[in-house]
Write a structure and sequence with these properties.
Layout: E1 4-9, E2 14-17, H1 19-25, H2 29-32, H3 52-61, E3 68-74, E4 80-91, E5 97-106, H4 108-160, H5 167-193, E6 201-204, H6 205-219, E7 224-230, E8 235-238, H7 240-257, E9 263-274, H8 276-279, E10 288-297, H9 327-337, E11 341-347, E12 351-359, E13 381-385, H10 389-401, E14 405-409, H11 412-420, E15 430-434, H12 442-452, E16 458-462, H13 467-475, E17 480-483, H14 488-513
Parallel strand pairs: 7-9, 13-14, 13-15, 15-16, 16-17
Antiparallel strand pairs: 1-2, 1-5, 3-4, 4-5, 6-8, 9-10, 10-12, 11-12
């Protein structure tokens, strides 16, 4: 029979193992008879961490409680196998337990299939959650970008009127810089949810670390001391906003672990060289030069049993409403996409340390910020269409500051009516319209306008532009897409470019007709 048959004495030692059992486990009778079952064919602990030694003590005390039991076993070669056991206590004429009869069948294949099915189900649930997050992100992006547009735009306009240098100017610059980060983060969430590629460029990680910690310090309680050691000015290639997010996620997690008793948040950036010997323990990283970003805290620490799960999507030790469980999953995904790795070490009651390794790039040329030329100006007549009165006011002020004459509309239908009733000398040179507006979308408005004025240049404003939107805009004859939140330089450069191209087209058309 293809069943394992064992007999155990009341001390848990093997007194019999059948021939099939010997073949299955790879032991001869001489190797196991008289030895404790735990430590020979039963491991001290399962792979999951369950204490099988303690369980077998229970079996010996009360075999009927474990009449049917599944547990992990171990072969002589160290291979793990799952067995379903039927256990029966054998008693003497006085009712005293004298031995236990165990009959087992191999269910390893079934268990593996169950584990694989559970893994696939988890992946499906994760994919469904990410799809839902993507839908939610797309839904809120428009409204959130409108809010950011107002914050960024009016901060930018206020900066134009503030003398420099002054504390007010510095504060406004912080508002402007922080709103830039918020804008980039919204785009990153949208890009992540839609599986698009991020823009990659060389940048100095140390500057990102200093900037992130400057923002964090203002929000951390006074009971948390921040220690910073940036000992590298090395460059990596990637998206600076992603590394900013990695640091913010790690630091906010660390702060959460110290929220009750306070402690020390320590952040350091150093350079390390990985050789062939070190790469194995670091998930197969290729030997070379790396930046090591370390974030440590003196908080409550993480239990060893869950340490391997901290990077799983939606895993969280926080209470309801305190977090999504996505923070460390996002960290892991970003770091891996950059060609790096992240390791965590923790001791309960003492704290946790995260080590992030990121590939260092060599560069002979220092990265110089581009020299900014003045924002292009003009005097043409522009129709600005957006259903948000605040953004209409903002766009009008920006364009008028650049010298343009601006008329505004908060309704696409009214904007179309304006074109239908234009008198001589009232012609517009350009239309700038939001994508998401009631009645007619920006793309539909462009199509209707081109029926009335085929050569009218149109710029589309949107919070997120994917290939589908870009393709529809191109077919509608739209000349450019302006990403929200809008900054004056981007708007000024695109408006001037589209107007100049439209002027050149008119000149060529006039030449052909002559």
């Amino acid at each position: 029979a293809n069943s394992i048959i064992l007999r155990l004495d009341t001390g848990g030692r093997l007194t019999f193992i059948n021939e099939f059992g010997q073949k299955f486990f790879g032991f001869s009778e001489e190797e196991v008879i008289g030895k404790p079952v735990v430590g020979t064919i039963v491991p001290e602990k399962e792979s999951s961490g369950r204490d099988l030694g303690a369980m077998f003590e229970e079996v010996l005390r009360n075999p009927d409680k474990y009449a049917n039991n599944e547990n992990e076993n171990i072969r002589k070669n160290g291979e793990r196998a799952w067995i379903v056991w039927t256990n029966r206590g054998i008693v003497d004429e006085t009712g005293q337990l004298i031995e236990i009869l165990c009959i087992g069948n191999d269910i390893t294949d079934r268990k593996r299939a169950e584990v694989e099915r559970e893994r696939l189900e988890r992946q499906l649930r994760q994919a469904q959650k990410m799809e839902a997050l993507g839908t939610l992100a797309g839904g809120i992006a428009h409204d959130f970008n409108n809010i950011l547009s107002a914050i960024m735009g009016f901060a930018e306009l206020a900066l134009l009127d503030v003398e420099k240098p002054s504390p007010l100017r510095e504060n406004l610059q912080q508002v402007f810089k922080s709103s830039h980060r918020a804008r980039d983060l919204v785009r990153q969430i949208l890009t992540f949810s839609r599986q698009s590629e991020q823009e990659r460029k060389p940048f100095e990680v140390g500057l990102i670390v200093k900037e992130a910690l400057k923002l964090l310090r203002a929000s951390l309680p006074s009971t948390i001391e921040v220690r910073q050691k940036v000992a590298s000015s090395g460059l990596m290639e990637g998206d600076p906003t992603q590394i900013h997010q990695v640091l913010m996620n790690l630091c906010t997690n660390a702060a959460h672990a110290m929220r009750d008793k306070g402690g020390v948040l320590e952040v350091s950036l150093t350079e390390v060289d990985l050789d062939h010997d070190a790469r194995g323990e670091l998930s197969g990283l290729t030997p070379g030069h790396y930046l090591r970003l370390t974030v440590g805290d003196t908080g409550h620490g993480i239990e060893p049993g869950i340490l391997d799960q901290v990077f799983d999507p939606f895993f969280s030790t926080k209470g309801p409403g305190e977090g999504t469980g996505l923070g460390l999953s996002v960290v892991h995904g970003i770091v891996r996409s950059c060609g790096g790795t992240v390791k965590v070490y923790s001791e309960v009651g003492k704290g946790t340390v995260f080590h992030v390794l990121l590939p260092l790039i060599e560069t002979a040329e220092p990265v110089q910020p581009p020299r900014e030329s003045p924002v292009p100006r003009g005097s043409e007549r522009i129709l600005l269409v957006d259903d948000e009165p605040t953004l209409v006011q903002l766009g009008k002020q920006m364009l008028e500051y650049l010298g343009y004459r601006v008329m505004t509309q908060t309704s696409s239908l009214e904007a179309l009516e304006v074109f239908r009733n234009l008198q001589a000398g009232e012609e517009f040179d350009l239309v700038v319209t939001d994508l998401t507006i009631p009645h007619l979308t920006g793309i539909q408005l462009a199509l209707e306008l081109h029926r009335l004025r085929p050569l009218m240049p149109v710029i589309l404003c949107t919070g997120f532009s994917d290939l589908g939107i870009a393709e529809k805009a191109r077919h509608a004859g739209i000349c450019g897409i302006l990403m929200k939140p809008v900054v004056m330089r981007k708007m000024g450069e695109l408006v001037r470019k589209v107007l100049d191209e439209a002027l050149e087209k008119r000149r060529l058309r006039n030449r052909e007709t002559v």
